[in-house]
Design a protein that fits this description.
heterodimer, A: about 350 residues, alpha/beta, Rossmann fold, 2 domains, 6-stranded parallel beta sheet, 6-stranded mixed beta sheet, 11 helices, disordered N terminus, B: about 350 residues, mainly alpha, ABC transporter involved in vitamin B12 uptake, BtuC, two-stranded antiparallel sheet, 16 helices, globular
């Protein structure tokens, strides 16, 4: 009996809450993997600015560490209870979160996956993300064009993210190889290529420490490596340290993906040759606009033609433009960089 | 008959050998081995280390058995090695320190941010970083020794506190290697390399860093301190039986607090070495240092029950992990195999520890 009463009271409060939300202001939620990574910090800034402009109340949630799935589920439940109009979500666990996302959509919320597509991708109403395959392809094309004829004899080190092969890491890796002109084998996984130009793959966890160790390991396999693909710029900075310790930093081409401010600065300093820049601020701002439109008249966001998500854009940043590969300068990249 | 009469002694003399009571020879080789290991517990990890080096040398030839590759292993284990030395001290007192990695990373962040954010001279910033690590350790020690809280709980909490403080304070922003090199090269001091026997082009040959030297010196210092100073013997005594130690006049409180403080200090040195190794100050580094250091200590044959083990063991333990990691990588094996084998080594090491303990039972 007591339980029933509490349940009724809760339901009353909840419906009152959503009624108030409908009547007065639109609210939205932003749920990120962590609130420490500069990428997500920038994403939150973008969302806050756009929300203030559109007159939307924004609530931000984040997991404690990357991979903190439970906190994200709890955040979705809070948003449903709170009567939010929509959720922007970068999921830590792309398949397990689907249950909670479905629950939110059934409650009438618009769910947009930011940066990281859910598994399956159509579990969310829309996905606003970087085309990571294209990001990889751009640096692959740039590296091949920069090497010219030497590309045929390149010795390539692939510094990937993790052995579990998360989608983002696979897309960047395979995009790079495609852009460089290497046969992919199965495009859904890395490491199965047979091209002798690939010296090896190793994992970096996407940080400096991992980047250095992985580079050292591959240099032990073949000290003549002259092209290094890295999953992101911290890994690239670590790889550079490994090369520097054996005096080879000047004759190796390092390429990366992300476009964070330290990474772009590293291009200016000649640590990284080129990087593909992504735009978390734009991702979040567009997401808030989509929620505002949905709250106003139920409009659903549309995908970029030919893709199963909305492409928030990517640009190659380098100071040494290569023929046939479109790029922006370090100065332009610095203006647009995050973190 | 007369001969028989003279031979009366034959009746009391047994025909068997003329021996007095003695200890029976204890079950041969195994027992001797068990005894030797009891006296010198670092022998097992040393043996495993040598066997694994020989194994990979046979498998991979000169790719593995080159001065370059072997010293590379030293460089790769230097951070874990330094932290493992600190962890050993705590585990010898029958404690455990889960906050080592977080303390190392926050110390490095403090050294970097104090230099770059507040413009404090880099020498002073380094001292502040080292002091910070020591103070956190001392606080851990106070909670364990005076408040009588279990070390596992104290350091579990401290790990979370320090890690969160690290992210809050640094905003997870990296200080780039190039900026450090230009403005505060002292931060990268322990990453300074020197080569022995490199080729004319400066490649190959044995490569050492000051961080590697620091690791070896730290182990050498504690090997001496634990064996030949009162403080060192007290650590063993406290780990073995704190009440007995107290009764025989050991200042248990001081010993515990000093052990945790020294641990914090060594962790801060590891944080400094970390800047040298990766060039930059990165708040996301070193997340697994606590687990990796405990792994090295356990494989190194130091008993988690305290009071027993040799400080050199964890050095061998860290090197074993390094040898397996690089060796398997060169052999082209999936990285997961490394973790699988390390797991087997951990269980094996504890099994051997239990077996050695029986010698005293």
């Amino acid at each position: 009996m007591k339980k029933l009463l509490i349940g009724t009271a809760l339901a009353a409060i909840t419906s009152a809450g959503s009624a108030m939300a409908d009547g007065h202001a639109v609210s939205a939620c932003l749920i990120t993997k962590t609130d420490t990574n500069p990428f997500f910090v920038k994403m939150r800034e973008g969302a806050e600015a756009a929300a203030a402009e559109a007159g939307i109340t924004l609530r931000s949630f984040a997991g404690q560490v990357d991979g903190d799935h439970e906190t994200q589920v709890a955040a979705i439940e809070t948003c449903i209870l709170d009567g939010a109009s929509g959720i922007l979500l970068t999921a830590s666990d792309t398949s397990s979160i689907v249950g909670a996302v479905t629950q939110a959509r059934e409650a009438g919320l618009l769910v947009i996956a930011l940066d990281t597509p859910l598994d399956p991708i159509d579990a969310a109403d829309a996905t606003f993300a970087t085309d990571n395959f294209l990001a990889g392809e751009l640096i692959g094309q740039w590296a091949a064009a920069t090497l010219g004829d030497d590309a045929a004899n390149a010795k390539i080190a692939m510094l990937d993210l993790a052995v579990s092969q998360p989608t983002v890491g696979v897309l960047r890796d395979q995009g790079f190889l495609q852009g460089f002109g290497i046969d992919l084998g199965d495009p859904n996984k890395w490491g199965d290529e047979t091209d002798p130009r690939i010296i090896g793959n190793d994992v970096t966890a996407g940080n400096e420490e991992g980047g250095r160790t992985a580079m050292e390991n591959l240099l032990a396999v073949d000290p003549e490596i002259n092209v290094v693909y890295t999953i992101n710029e911290p890994a690239a900075a670590g790889a550079y340290e490994a090369l520097r310790s054996i005096g080879r930093e000047d004759d190796v081409l390092i390429v990366s993906v992300d476009g964070g401010c330290p990474g772009v600065q590293n291009i200016a300093d000649g640590v990284i040759g080129a990087t593909s820049q992504q735009y978390p601020l734009r991702m979040a701002a567009l997401g808030i606009e989509a929620i505002a439109a949905y709250a106003a008249d139920g409009t659903l966001p549309e995908n970029t033609p030919g893709k199963d998500f909305f492409d928030t854009g990517v640009a190659l940043v380098t100071d040494q433009p290569a023929d046939g590969v479109e790029s922006i300068s370090v100065a332009e990249g610095t203006e647009l960089c995050w973190g | 008959m007369s001969g028989n009469a003279d031979d009366f002694e034959a009746a009391i003399k047994p025909s068997a050998a003329d021996t007095v009571a003695s200890f029976s020879e204890r079950k041969g080789f195994l027992a001797k081995l068990q005894h030797a290991l009891h006296v010198n517990p670092a022998l097992v990890p040393l043996f495993v280390l040598l066997v694994s080096i020989i194994l990979f040398a046979l498998l991979l030839g000169s790719r593995f058995l080159s001065p370059f590759a072997l010293t590379l292993i030293l460089q790769q284990v230097q951070i874990v090695g330094i932290v493992a030395a600190a962890q050993s001290l705590v585990i010898l007192t029958a404690g455990i320190d889960l906050s080592v990695g977080a303390v190392a990373v926050l110390s490095s962040v403090i050294m970097g941010q104090f230099t770059f954010r507040y413009g404090i001279p880099v020498e002073i910033a380094v001292v502040i970083g080292l002091t910070f690590g020591t103070l956190i350790g001392m606080f851990n020690g106070w909670l364990v020794a005076v408040m009588k809280l279990p070390p596992f709980i104290v350091t579990l909490g401290m790990w979370q506190i320090v890690l969160a403080a690290n992210f809050l304070y640094s905003a997870n922003e990296t200080i780039r290697a190039q900026d450090i090199e230009e403005n505060a090269p002292l931060l990268q001091f322990l990453g300074t390399t020197f080569k022995v026997g490199a080729g004319a082009d400066g490649r190959g040959g044995a490569t050492f860093t000051y961080g590697v030297i620091a690791m070896v010196l730290i182990f050498a210092f504690f090997a001496y301190a634990l064996k030949h100073t009162a403080w060192g013997r007290h650590i063993y005594a406290v780990g073995d039986d704190p009440e007995a130690a107290q009764l025989s006049g050991v200042n248990v409180r001081f010993t515990l607090i000093s052990v945790y403080a020294v641990t914090g200090f060594i962790c801060a040195i590891a944080g400094w070495a970390l800047i040298g190794r990766i060039g930059s100050v990165s708040p996301t580094s070193g997340q697994l240092l606590n687990i990796e250091s405990i792994t090295a200590v356990v494989i190194g044959g130091i008993s988690l029950f305290g009071g027993r083990g040799s400080i050199m063991g964890p050095l061998f333990g860290a090197l074993i992990v390094g040898v397996f990691t690089l060796g398997l990588r060169l052999a082209g094996a999936d990285a997961q195999w490394t973790f699988l084998l390390i797991g087997a080594l951990i269980i094996g090491a504890v099994a051997v520890d239990q077996w050695i303990r029986k010698v005293s039972a």
